[in-house]
Fold this protein.
Amino acid sequence: MLGWLKRKKQIPVTGQENNSGQQAATMAQRREDLDAGHPDTADTPGNTLSQTPASHAADTAGSEEPAINTPKAESSSIIKRLAERLSRTRESFTSRIDELFLGKKIIDAELFDELEEILVTADIGIATTQELLEQARRQVKRDALSKPGELKEVIKKQLKSAITSPDRPSGLPVQPGSPFVIMVVGVNGVGKTTTIGKIAKKFVDSGRSVLLIAADTFRAAATSQLKIWGERNNIRVISQHDGADPSAVVFDGMAVAVSKGYDVVLVDTAGRLHTKANLMEELKKIKRVMAKQLPEAPHEVLLVIDATTGQNGISQAIQFNEAVGVSGIALTKLDGTAKGGIIVNISSELKLPIRFIGVGEQIDDLREFDAQEYIDALFEP
């Protein structure tokens, strides 16, 4: 599951902070200072709030990193906590399925019709729902199933199958030897910059050197927000002034990443409405600039989608994919929606892996996606 955090050997990721309450208060105060217009560091191409020394990047690039010895949580405990975060989806989706099967004695056409309604209203999508149910019908016929409880197990397996595929593993394929560049895209308001900060913290906890590039120069306070995350995690942030050319910021940042030998580079980008053609052209330009500095870059184009937007998230994914070639999805705010079936729809319709899911405000509430854990959490008794 955590193959994306492998280098010379696998390093467990904690994704947790010891003093989350104190850090949250510090961040809140920092934002208040920014809102009040208190002086901040100047936005220059090489400026940072907290810089990682060049010697650190160079040292870690060629040395074996020590494993972080963290007690591994029991699987049942992880599933239980995830189930709590997915309570709204469980109430509207899983509970309805339980009630449906509880009152049925046999598997018939009426049962499939009611099941179809539940799946569609959970944002799994009409096409995906029809495909799932057709596969279920074939299995019921092939295995001569007659009890509704047996059909429920079939549905669980079909849902898991829809969000997993051997040719699109959920882990990020980070490789040693050169910076692994992640270009993060998405419309405004989906939690893009916050997601970047949380992912960066996971990499830092695993012993990686991380560089952040603030290429969202259009949104007010976007750079300041990214700097807050850099300050919290002692990560260098490359930025320029508001309204600067995003490609110029990326050019400067990539030059630093290559010369200093950073392990991971996370690039924040503008997120104006996905219907704006000029935004897509700007993202294409950023990709070209990355490739000039590092031919393989970006190694990952991560699209952040707000789960509460439902089917509009599919539209966003299609248009971003056409423009810049999306390679993975981070789905945020799953704890705030009753339509968590959007995960199944995205995976099935777009054939894109889900990398991360956001199920809360805390840093450890951004989780590496595990299909089995997700399905088990949905159907947790």
